[in-house]
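User: Predict Glutathione S-transferase's structure from this.
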Amino acid sequence: MIIFGAPLSPFVRKVMIYCVERKIDFELRPVNLGSQDPEFLAASPLRKMPAIQDGDYCLADSSAIVHYLEGKYGAALIPNDAQLRGKAIWFDEVADTVFAATLGKIFFNRVVAPKFMGREGDMAAADDAEKNDLPPLLAWAESEVPDEGYLLGKDFTLADISLAGVFINLSHGGVELDAATYPKITSWLKRVLARDSFAAQVAREKKMLSR
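Assistant:
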C-alpha cells in the first residue's frame, strides 16, 4: 500500500502510526498539495492528504482511510462497543477540526512557511493562536484525559493517535506544555509517545526539522 502525503502532517502521521501499530506494510510517497504526481492525483483528485493506493483501490482523507483499514484487516483501534466507538470517533473529529484549526495557525506560520516555503510566516497570528485560542482547548483536553491508561481506558485507540498527533505538531511549533497546569495531558502524552510507533516517527521528524 502506498501512502501519499507529507510526514509532518498530523493527518498523514495518523495513518502511518495506525499502520505501524497494526503491522500493515506501506510505502510513504512524500507529496505536497501542489504535487503533480499522477498517481497522487489519481488517488486524490481533490488533492486531499493523505491518500492511499492499495492495489487498484484509492482513497483520500485520514479518517476514511483508517475506517477502510479497520474494515479490511478487522477492528483493532476503533472499539466495537457503541459508546467507546462513538468517543473514539469524537476525539478523532475534534483533533482533525477544532484543534487543527488552531494548530494550523501555529505550525504553518512558525514551521511550514519559513522552513518549507521559503517565506516569513505570520508570527503575530501564531502568537495570538497560542495565547488566546489554544488555552481553552487545552483546558478541555485536561478535563477529558484520564489519570492513567489511555483516552478510552486501558486500550490504546484511534483517539490517542489522533489527539497525540496534534500535540506533536504543537511541540514542533514551539509550544511547551506546563506540566503543573496540564498534569494529565503531559502524563498521558508521555505514555503515548513512549510507544514504539510514535517514538520512531517523532525521532524521524525531529531529524527532518533539524536540517
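The chain is about 60% helix and 5% strand.
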